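#onboarding

Welcome to the new folks! Below is a worked example of what a typical request in this channel looks like: someone posts a single protein sequence, and someone else replies with the predicted structure as tokens. Don't worry about understanding the tokens yet, we'll cover that in week two.

Example request:
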Amino acid sequence: MSGRIPRQFIDDLLVRIDIVDLIDSRVPLKKSGSNFTARCPFHAEKTPSFSVNRGKQIYHCFGCGASGNAIGFLMEFNHLGFVEAVEDLAAFAGVDVPRELVDNEPGLPDKKNVSHVYDVLAGVAGFYAEQLRGNAEGRVAVDYLKARGVSGEVARDFLLGYAPSKWDALVARFGQADLVEAGMLVVKDDGKVYDRFRGRLMFPIRDRRKRVIGFGGRVLDSSLPKYLNSPETVVFSKSKELYGIYELLERNSKPERILVVEGYMDVIALAQFGIFNAVAALGTATSKMQIDLLFRFTSELVFCFDGDNAGRQAAWKATEAALPCLRDGRQIKIMLLPQGQDPDSLLRTENLSAFTERIRSAQVLSDYFFQNIAGLSDLSTVEGRSQLLAAAKPALEKVPAGFFREMMFARLQELTATRIAVDVVENQTRLKSKFGVGKVAQSPRVSLARKVIALLLQHPNFAGLVEKDGVVLDELSFAGVELLRDVLRRIALEKPENSAILLESYRETSQEKAIKALAGLELDVPVGGEEAEFCGALKQLCKQAKEAMLNGLIEKESREGLVFEEKEMLRKLLRDKT
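Example response:
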């Protein structure tokens, strides 16, 4: 955030935007008392537990715990990064996002240049699309697409194009320096340049915001390489992006599952048959970053790879990359196609119904993992079981703590007939507590400290009441006092106009999670009675803290005596009490 978008602009934007209007434009809200409610867009529920407060400018779900301000909502709802969410919020408000005129942080590209690269790539994509439809040379690409059964509608939806075979087709139309920065030209040692893509069917790669970030190109003859991708640029990183992600999310922002396939044409072919939930890695092995990205939109991934050696190797690499991503509630399946088949040929050989059934019945990752890793070992021998243990244990230790990790290690113990001396799962009691297993639901009691902090977050103007009542928190000690002091310091420094701005100041801090939970805490305080509730709770909290300190000092005095400062504090506390 720092050095990129001025903080004052973000605060002003949060004041300008009404979070009720923003959320209502995406999730229809109903008035309910002083709040607006809806069924939560972040988890499945039958009765509304999602609440939006106009006065505080924050939202909170009492079902799943999601909470935040307008920026946080856009980040979660539209799966955006922070900067993207601010830009979208500014667009909603009808204002431009200013940029601070400071030197770039090391390793970060200039934002102005980045925006220009997006413009250049969009122009190139448009040029390639023109060449596909309006250039006689592009006919060979059209014939190829027709032979593959790709309709004009699908070609249009994926913005397919054609790169002419000329060495300088782009240079003649766009600026050379711009094209080099966008990765569209190859620069020779002598400084001469030529078009990177020539005589190829072009697949524009778009990010989640519809921006063209790179290209993939396929030859239409026997030339090599068969596929060529854009190089890494300031806007394109192969390990972080996926082909087809924009097109998928445009149709369904929360798909039941996502199919991960090997190539561009696999995504196109599946779309032609009405399967729109497929994406492809960009010429590299599926990465952890790509898997984490996909799990932001769905809870189930299906890796669909060819059944040849290359496909099996790709499936195993994807499995290894996926292990650190497998938190409870996430599922991955492996779908290896018959030898010599790809999704397009298999759909034509069988039918859509049979292919869909293959997806549904694909092998779960746990079975695939142990089938492959145990396949090379003779488990009837000590040596074979030892081999399996040595291969599997390091991989499974990458799985995050939880029930899935526990059961994977239990399966390994069963296969090796060995008790594994490793802390494979967090303490069972902690897990039961975390997931509510075996607990009787009770009405949660809110401590005085939590109530005071929650009311302060929800009404930042109450900070003046602390000083007015003569409360000196530096002299007190109780659970939560450091957080309370920090909130008061931030309010004094930031002077936030509402809760949304105060919450924003805690973004990406260690206290962010606790702050968001407290800001959304339901306190059942009558409307108009919040100030009296805050003053009363603060007074009682200070009283309890002083009594605890007094009793502690008296006990210590009788046990071992007090130093001078402690004696002075004891006298003060006794005076205050009388």
